[in-house]
Amino acid sequence: MKYYTSLGQTGRIIRFLLAGGILLLGGAIVSAQGISTVGIVNINQVYNSFYRDSQAVRDLERLRQQYQEEIDEHFLELESLKDRHVSAREVGNRRRADQLEDQITELQRFLEDLTRRRRQQLEHRQSQLLSDDFLQRLQNAIQYVAETEGFTLILRSDTEGIQWWSSEIDVSDKVLQRLIRTSSR
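Request: output the structure for the sequence above.
Response:
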């Protein structure tokens, strides 16, 4: 029969709590180090390198460019109106400044609506293409590269807001190689 002294039992409890605390702390440190790794893929480069003959893909990219040019044209017009508004205010032509302000507001609303509509149209066209076998394989290749290379997020290089990235995170060539390997099976 074993008898535990209160110190012996307390010592075991303290050691147990310390061991549990160390395990919890270690787990917290490991989870705190769960840094997200972002990759970039240049879809146009992959399209052009792998699937040059796809008319549907070329049409979508042409439409995307056309819509962007249309939006850019209206944006330049908006900037011109803003400059004229500032000039009218500087010379004290309040009536003209008010007219220009109304035009600016109207054009801003139009531009927001146009951008929204064009984005929806492109998304609709792109969703139609997603049923295409190639685009499904492209998505699978991106997912494979992301998972095997340890990326938690892959962004398109033409995504709005991306200003610069290191070539080290560009996975376009790896995605292309994966597509080539899987398509030859």
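Helices lie at 6-32, 43-50, 55-90, 94-130, 133-149, 172-183.
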